[in-house]
Amino acid sequence: xxxxxxxxxxxxxxxxxxxSRLGNPKALIEVGDTSLISWMFSRLNxxxxxxxxxxREDLVERIRNSIGDVEIVINEDPELGRTGxxxxxxxxxxxxxxxxxxxxxxxxxxxxxxxxxxxxxxSSKSSSCPSSGGRGGHPLLVxxxxxxxxxxxxxxxxxxGIINPNKIDVKDPYLHLNVDTQEDVDEFLRxxxxx
Length: 195
Fold this sequence. Notes:
Layout: E1 9-15, E2 30-31, E3 34-35, H1 36-46, E4 52-55, H2 60-67, E5 72-74, H3 82-94, E6 102-107, H4 115-122, E7 128-132, E8 135-136, E9 140-142, H5 144-152, E10 166-169, H6 182-191
Parallel strand pairs: 1-4, 1-6, 4-5, 7-10
Antiparallel strand pairs: 2-3, 6-9, 7-8
């Protein structure tokens, strides 16, 4: 985990979903002159994070072409669910790292968070997620204790069945934006300049 600004915080972008409702890979949605995953990577990188990407094998080359030199971890069984991709990223970031770390988990299809929300999460002492209108959202910061719980869990168990992060109230109006359909993509493109 190469990260000079936040040496005890890893970051993983999840981009292994099949995108069956959208019909095209969500990570490669065009956002201006770039892709959604490149846009998200740049935002996180500007804050001093060095994200890795967990994706499916058939997307590796296109993601690399979009972002450039980025560490990519392949999830061979993405159909098992998002937790399997999370486990792949956590395991990669924990390997060879003896100190306690926290890891920020950022699903590519949940881009509605603000930069200030990321800063709040990074400063959290324990597992946390942003919350708006009483509903938890993404990204999710997991502490060392919860990292170990997730790694021991079954890949098809939803994260909310494994851990219970602290909810931090934020004012992000688009926090719950979930890019699943073309209508969602259109909504995201309408608000992207406000994020």
